[in-house]
Amino acid sequence: MTAATTGPVLVVGVGLIGASVGLRLTAEGVDVRLQDPSRTAVALARDVGAGRSARPDDDEPALVVVAAPPDVTAGVVRAQLEAHPGAVVTDVASVKGHVLAELRASGVPLDRYVGSHPMAGRERSGPSAAVPDLFLGRPWVIAEAEESSADAVLAVRALAVDLGAVPVTMDADAHDAAVAAVSHVPQVVSSLMAARLVGVDDAALGLAGQGLRDVTRIAASDPELWTSILAANSAAVRPLLEALRGDLDEVIDALASADEADGPETIATGVLVTLARAIAAGNEGVARIPGKHGGAQRAYEEVTVLVPDSPGELARLLTEIGEAGVNLEDLRLEHAAGRQVGMAAISVLPGSAARLEAELVERGWRLVV
Ligand SMILES: NC(=O)C1=CN([C@@H]2O[C@H](COP(=O)(O)OP(=O)(O)OC[C@H]3O[C@@H](n4cnc5c(N)ncnc54)[C@H](O)[C@@H]3O)[C@@H](O)[C@H]2O)C=CC1
Ligand SMILES: O=C(O)C(=O)Cc1ccc(O)cc1
Asked: Whole-model pTM?
């Protein structure tokens, strides 16, 4: 066993996140027990290999991981602190300030409690969507409170590391402001955008490309979970949405002026620059998103290859890129609706694209140029 987490670990709430924690810890040889008000969820989590059902006569857990919906998390954490007086208790709820405030108000001693939040998820929920590598390389926020003991903090950091994540220390309020900007507001924007597609006719949707897919990917998320997250982080999310509404109003006003004009020359002064600034500000923002290894985003070169839609073709392409001695930095697949071919956009280090293109053409691949 290589894990620093020795267990036993009790996972309370065995949906996507809880069962993913259990899967990885079980694979590391840790004794994991599963508990959930849904007996089906427990049985399913057990079946996928996340651990075994908790029993009333179990010995005491060393660590309890609460992975229940955010609105019930504080109550469940409190019950676990009281039920297991020797255990460290953490929770993984997406909002931290609300949970901590509720726990403080309850008066329960918090030395054995350390809130946390893995920045990893999927659009699907429940134990059947669990995967052991969900947290690999992802940030895991450790939102220690003033009351948290050093030992408890160490145990939760060790858990994050054992799950392959990268622990990041932040206090609860800073965490909530950060996730409002990088996770919660993007969810609202994506959902609202996707909702606008409901009335769009099929012919128009057939023209959709990767741009629309990129903007709406997370709109497939679970409505119940996100209702709970947004309600619990309303104080941090609302001002950002108000600022966004201001930006939208500026763009709408500019478009209204452009609409009234007969051509670019007659558009009122300042209108076009408003539009250009909106897009340029987006360029500036997107350049700030860290790249795949967490550092500043790198400018990769991209080679786009047509891949026949038949078994083994993508694997053959990847093998041949390796044989060409070029390191694949990233891979994006695009599917053209109704066509028997896909497009693989291969990101490579600057300076490598021309060589890779030549190698692939020589091997008979068709490139999109
Ligand atoms: N889904 C995601 O992408 C991420 C979710 N989180 C957080 O993880 C937590 C769990 O989310 P998911 O696993 O996605 O949800 P899920 O819906 O897959 O699973 C939640 C589980 O909690 C159980 N549950 C409900 N009430 C409970 C209670 N009172 N006590 C114990 N268990 C209870 C449910 O029966 C269900 O099995 C949430 O707090 C969420 O904010 C954190 C990071 C990412
Ligand atoms: O937001 C993201 O980028 C995700 O990867 C999914 C996610 C959803 C909810 C969370 O609390 C944390 C992460």
From this structure: 0.85
